[in-house]
């Protein structure tokens, strides 16, 4: 795949970039290694000062970088601005909380004595250069949620971003440089996916984090395993959205629309499978379909647009194949089901797809098992909670889940039994710097954000002092 900015709203190639050659990669790996040796010794106050300055600059750049993101991958510009604001918030959160999250941990006095020590504790130290292989769908947020905790922990970052968002990738390197981070602390590697293996195997790379497809995750995990390097993986998702009879159905249906079509439907944590109790199915289906049908599809640079184009032509083709397979096997489209009508002439060559609600899904259909990356919802009717949970878990993925109920017993059952990295009640899944984020099953392993995220790339070092003082020989 060429490294290029291609506007998905019209298919026009705006800029192309040369990939780094071996010498260029070597220079950046060496710069990262050199930077880490010094940066790891800085204190939390200095790291926080630098990260807070990056947040200030990002706020100032919000409008410009939002337009860049929209141009490169098609999200509505209003959503792009919100993404930039969220990134600045996360930077400030980690700047404020990193020191306490990585504070030394002290076992009880009794356990210290039992270990034979006069003193013992756990101290967190950075690992080194962390390679981040990141996707295009949230081109700022996916990077910042790795970079903010990694930099605050004293690590340095190497970003291999998706090839269709090169300008966003270069912006991020420039942002941290302008904020005052030492040279080499955060670098963008403009390389194709074929270069990742050699970079990850390099002795100067300590660990890796990847957000992306299951095949990409398998590849990175296998290489890192062979090299005995730590990884965090956030892969695909096909999140269930359960609606039970006690729910506020009107609010559940309104929220369901946003939960499905956020980021043009191209979100791993977007709700994709809507599992509705038969008692409220008809009302939910009607409200949900009307809400999906009323969405404005069009130019993502316009403030009135709800749904922009998919990020790539191949992405739209993949989505079309999933929907066509389902329709061909007997599913029905309550709305959508194809490319939208009535686009402005300048958008007819863009990669748009109409908001779609499908019913009559069966296990024989690909869409029952595969992730739909676009504004397409699968709607199921169930007779009770047992069937709802069983259907929710009938997926190779387990990223997050959404449950609408006012019944505390139902809530307890869902917390106990849903196979997912999160359970969100009476709302939609969202990431927040204070809450750990990640999945189970084929949605990956490890956690980003919160304390788990910053400790993911740290060495938990046991420090033990025997009965004899350290300075006894002096």
TrEMBL record:
Report what the protein is called. NADP-dependent succinic semialdehyde dehydrogenase
Query: Keywords in UniProt for this one?
Result: NADP, Oxidoreductase
Q: Out of the domains of life, which is the source?
A: Bacteria
One Pfam family recorded for the sequence = Aldedh
**Protein's UniProt keywords contain Oxidoreductase:** yes
Entries under NCBIfam families matching the protein: PRK09406.1 (NF006915)
Ion transport: present as a keyword of the record? no
Tell me what organism the protein belongs to.
Streptomyces gelaticus
In the record, the note on similarity to other proteins reads:
Belongs to the aldehyde dehydrogenase family.
Which gene is annotated as encoding this protein in its UniProt record?
Answer: gabD1
Tell me which residues make up the Aldehyde dehydrogenase domain: 3-463
């Amino acid at each position: 795949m060429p490294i290029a900015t291609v506007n998905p709203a019209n298919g026009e190639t705006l800029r192309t970039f040369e990939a780094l050659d071996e010498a260029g990669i070597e220079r950046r790996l060496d710069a990262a290694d050199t930077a880490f040796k010094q940066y790891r010794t800085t204190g939390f106050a200095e790291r926080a000062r630098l990260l807070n300055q990056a947040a200030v600059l990002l706020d100032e750049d919000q409008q410009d970088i939002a337009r860049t993101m929209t141009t490169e991958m098609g999200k509505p510009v209003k959503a792009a601005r919100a993404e930039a604001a969220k990134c600045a918030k996360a930077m400030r959160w980690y700047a404020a909380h990193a020191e306490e999250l990585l504070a030394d941990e002290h076992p009880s006095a009794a356990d210290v004595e039992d270990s034979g020590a006069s003193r013992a504790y756990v101290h967190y130290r950075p690992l080194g250069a962390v390679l981040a292989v990141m996707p295009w769908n949230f081109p700022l947020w996916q990077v910042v949620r790795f970079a903010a905790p990694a930099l605050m922990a004293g690590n340095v970052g190497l970003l291999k971003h998706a090839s269709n968002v090169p300008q966003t990738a270069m912006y991020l390197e420039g942002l941290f440089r302008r904020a005052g981070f030492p040279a080499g602390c955060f670098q963008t590697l403009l390389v194709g996916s074929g270069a990742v293996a050699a970079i990850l195997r390099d002795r100067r790379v300590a660990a890796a984090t990847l957000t992306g497809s299951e095949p990409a995750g398998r590849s990175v995990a296998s290489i890192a395993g062979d090299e005995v390097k730590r990884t965090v993986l956030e892969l695909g998702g096909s999140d269930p959205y359960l609606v039970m009879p006690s729910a506020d159905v009107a609010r559940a249906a309104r929220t369901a629309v946003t939960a499905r079509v956020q980021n043009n439907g191209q979100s791993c944590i977007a709700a994709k499978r809507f599992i509705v109790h038969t008692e409220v199915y008809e009302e939910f289906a009607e409200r949900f379909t009307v809400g999906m049908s009323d969405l404005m599809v069009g130019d993502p640079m316009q403030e009135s647009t709800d749904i922009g184009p998919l990020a790539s032509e191949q992405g739209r083709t993949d989505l079309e194949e999933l929907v066509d397979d389902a329709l061909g096997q007997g599913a029905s489209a309550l709305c959508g089901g194809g490319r939208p009508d009535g686009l402005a002439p300048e958008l007819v060559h863009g990669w748009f797809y109409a908001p779609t609600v499908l019913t009559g899904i069966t296990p024989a259909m690909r869409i029952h098992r595969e992730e739909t990356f676009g504004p397409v919802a699968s709607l199921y009717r169930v007779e009770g909670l047992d069937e709802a949970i069983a259907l929710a878990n009938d997926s190779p993925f387990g990223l997050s889940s959404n449950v609408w109920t006012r019944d505390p017993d139902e809530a307890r059952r869902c917390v106990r039994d849903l196979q997912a990295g999160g359970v969100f009640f009476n709302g939609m899944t969202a990431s927040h710097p204070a809450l750990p984020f990640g999945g189970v099953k084929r949605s990956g392993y490890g956690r980003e954000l919160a304390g788990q995220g910053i400790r993911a790339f740290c060495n938990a070092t046991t420090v033990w002092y025997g009965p004899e003082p350290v300075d006894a020989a002096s």
